[in-house]
Amino acid sequence: MSSDRYSDRMAYDFSRFSTQSFERLIQALAAAAVGATIQIYGAGKDGAREATYTGRCAIGNKEWDGYVVFQAKYHQINESTAKNASWLISQIDQEMAKFSDPKRALKRPDYYVIASNVRLSGAAADRSGKGQGGIDKVYKHLQEWSKKLGIKGFVIWHLDTISTLLDVHPNVRTLFEFWVQPGDVLASILRNLAGPKHEDVLSRYLRNSLRQSREIKTRDIGQAIGRTVMLEEVFADLPIDEGTYEQVTVDFGSVRIGTQDLDEESDTSDVDDEMEFADDSPFDHPRILAQLMRRSADKFDPQSWQSLEDFDEHNCRRNAPLPNRIVLLGGPGQGKSTIGQFMAQLCRARLLRQMRLTQTPEINSAIAAILKCGATEGIFLDGPLRYPFHIELPRFADALSEAQKADISLSIVAYIAKQITKLSEVRIESDDLREWLRIIPTVIILDGLDEVPHSGNRAEV
């Protein structure tokens, strides 16, 4: 923090959140503040609240007894404190209008907590009323709404308040380390996670994977121009119709190659109205990898997509769609593997950028080129750092077949551990990897299922 007022506070980075993951952060802080009996609301239309609580509680220095509503508002644009205040006031107006709308018949809160990542000015107005800071402006606005709706009390959790709450609740901070910690802290976590024995294994595996995955497999191109062609030199993200971008499946049959307009009769009525498409893309239509990278900023645990009151046996079924499972469908040559390969490269480059002291000039050059390509394609690069594991399923199928012949069990985790061992030259056991997966946000890319023949061991894969 630049201000002396916050000089003793740990500095947090709120730029890696998505709307969903920020809501999860506020739900976790709310639960830490009032206790386990809080009602958490999952993905979907939240009815003007992320969480509710009924009973006695203490929010900061305020003692409340009644129905409390917690609401989160995430602002992706870093603006001045004055603009931040105006934006938050507009968001409050939208939420309060829901409570005042008789058609919605929402239960009005006795007490209200509005949480946002925006920084607000604490400046006090002079005697004439000029120079009023953002905190006072928002406070005054909420006072007016409170009188209209009969709200007894309210609290504003702005950026500095949330930072203080993270200091006070280290368990919550640990859950969101890869969202809020500065890059140098995350680099230290990754270096030390495996302990002294495996201190460099994670970064070494990243470096070797990034190096080996740069050259594209179509060697004829390199032969034609007389040099090796790198993936980031030829990668282009693919546009897709917004109306066909469903929660867990991207069908490459609907991918638009080129820049032609969408069919006018394209039906978008079935789109989940909670699915957000980036509004900061330089392209006319949503693009596949850009949306996958933006989705990766979400936090994936059961509470993230399913409210407790709606959780039932039906949703526990194995075939129920989950937001952390994405399927890309399409025919040969439509770009599925390339999307997966470059997503892994972007994740590796972002992680390695935080470990500058361990890089060679070759790796630094590769990192810069990959991230430049991602930025040029309008791909979201500000989410949490996710550790990528790219698995070529035909090779896994071969390894699984060999293991079965030897009467040896081979799980996907054991296979990944073997790949890490091979590329890092340090023996890694399945238990080591499971522990890392428990702590580190990851993305596992399973590539090439259609290349495993039905006559082979596709079912086992």
Counting DSSP E segments of at least 2 residues, the number of strands comes to: 9
State the secondary-structure class: alpha/beta
Rg for CA atoms: 25 Å
Low-confidence stretches: 1-8, 242-248, 251-280, 305-317
Shape: elongated
Q: Span from first to last CA?
A: 50 Å
How much of the polypeptide forms β-strand, as a percent range? 5-15%
| Order of neighbouring strands in the sheet with most strands | 1-2-3-4-5
List the helices and strands in order: HEEEHEHEHHHHHHHEHHEHHEHHHE
Mean pLDDT: 80
Helical content (DSSP H or I, runs of 4+): 40-55%
Structure, described:
With 461 residues, the chain is α/β, with parallel strands linked by helices. Helix content is 41%, strand content 11%. The protein folds into 2 domains: 4-180, Trna Endonuclease, Chain: A, domain 1 (3-Layer(aba) Sandwich); 185-451, no CATH class. The protein has a 5-stranded mixed sheet. A two-stranded parallel sheet has the order 6-7. The chain is elongated, with a radius of gyration of 25 Å.
Structure characteristics:
alpha/beta; disordered N terminus; 2 domains; two-stranded parallel ribbon; single chain; 461 residues
Write the layout of secondary structure elements.
Elements: H1 19-34, E1 39-40, E2 51-59, E3 62-73, H2 81-100, E4 111-116, H3 134-149, E5 153-157, H4 159-168, H5 170-175, H6 177-180, H7 183-193, H8 201-212, H9 219-225, H10 231-234, E6 249-251, H11 288-295, H12 302-305, E7 327-329, H13 336-353, H14 361-376, E8 387-392, H15 393-405, H16 412-424, H17 430-439, E9 442-447
Parallel strand pairs: 3-4, 4-5, 6-7, 8-9
Antiparallel strand pairs: 1-2, 2-3
Helix pairs in contact: 2-3, 8-13, 8-16, 13-14, 16-17
